[in-house]
Amino acid sequence: MDAVMLSRIQFASTTLFHFIFVPLSIGLVFLIAIMETLYVFKGNEMYKKMAKFWGQLFLINFAVGVVTGILQEFQFGMNWSNYSRFVGDVFGAPLAVEALLAFFMESTFIGLWIFGWDRLSKKVHLLCIWLVSLGTIISAFWILAANSFMQHPVGFEINNGRAEMNDFFALITNPQVLVEFPHTVFGSFATGAFLLTGVSAFKLLKKQEVEFFKKSFLIGMIVAVVSGMGIAFTGHYQAQYLVKTQPMKMAASEGLWNDSADPAPWTLAALIDTENKENSAEIKVPYLLSYLSYSKFSGVVEGMNTLQSRYEEKYGEGNYIPPVKTTFWSFRIMIISGGLMIVLALFGAIQALRGRLETSKKYLKLMVPAIFLPLIGSATGWIMTEIGRQPWVVFGYMTTADAVSPNVSAGQVLFSLITFSAIYLLLAIVMAYLFIRVIKKGPVEETQDTHHTADPFDGKGGHAYAK
Description:
With 467 residues, the chain is mainly alpha-helical. It contains 15 helices and six strands. It folds into two domains: 359 residues; 76 residues, no CATH class. A two-stranded antiparallel sheet has the order 1-2. It has a two-stranded antiparallel ribbon with strand order 3-4. Strand 5 and strand 6 form a beta hairpin. Helix 1 runs antiparallel to helix 4 and helix 7 packs across helix 8. The radius of gyration is 24 Å and the shape is globular.
């Protein structure tokens, strides 16, 4: 493989691994903030214990996420120097704001939250965790603002062969980020909620700390239901925007080679023949693609062959059709994951509210592996978003082949790919070990002595915990 493909594989692998931690951090800290809010306003010590227990998992996840995230920005200079040179003036601004504002905000108030138990007033301490939650959400916004520029470039002009920002407000109000951001946030809330319910389900099956994990499960289920609906609605709006701005991606995600009929059916599954540019077999749902695209049961959706001809006229000769099979199936895996999340969340919420949760053994067993559903949905959604944009790295202005560093050899990229993969594997093992250790130990009781400890999560007495 050449340096371009290896650089793409490296960026994809490190991003997919890092993206495990980002939505989990956003979702978990939001749930912890809800728990502490219930503690402050209801005075029930159970909610305080819940915030502390789930806080341990959040802190582990946050720490590993920081380590894996550092590499992401380094890669722009290492493997993608032509890209950085072209868009650095635009792309660098939201990344800088994210680091200097959102990340510092998260880090500062995480520290206050960790060491502020019984030192700060209840409401000030509660404010700290909500500010951490707000910081993670703001951080997501700035990252998505940078990514949205790659999908739909706005707020810039070309000078001396470089993209230079001339409208910061246009950059942060890019319609692309306005549809991506809520979808990502709801997906993150669902990720945290399904970790909460999955761990709680495991503990309930073991009949350990039953009351504690029943309450945790119910909070997680309520958030999961709301998030699942939010994912569905915001995803619908995102698809409609895609038809307008990146019709080729939309066509590839549907395996649509030629213009659709009117009304357009949605392809549930297909045997895609990319060599002959046709589908040898298809299962279709009538009218549905028109509704997804235009919110009405009529309307033609353009096919890849039509768009290829148009792009050749506009951008010159070349292949503007992305990897169709990857785009098509990643989109469907994302939809299946989202649908299963909604079904499981609704059923679980009903069972919990009826008091039948503990007796639903089969359902609880399903909820343990269901922890991974939001992660699968997020990963495949990201794959569809990025692969479906190919061959562009900045849509309409720079191709991926032109963005790679010219002086980095395939051997150098391969070496770094192997090295980073080994480090990430080690981090994954460490994180899994720490998660399992905390989950097995479970929530622990506070002692009466609340004056002498440095670490509120050490589990060794003081004002923290003791068995």
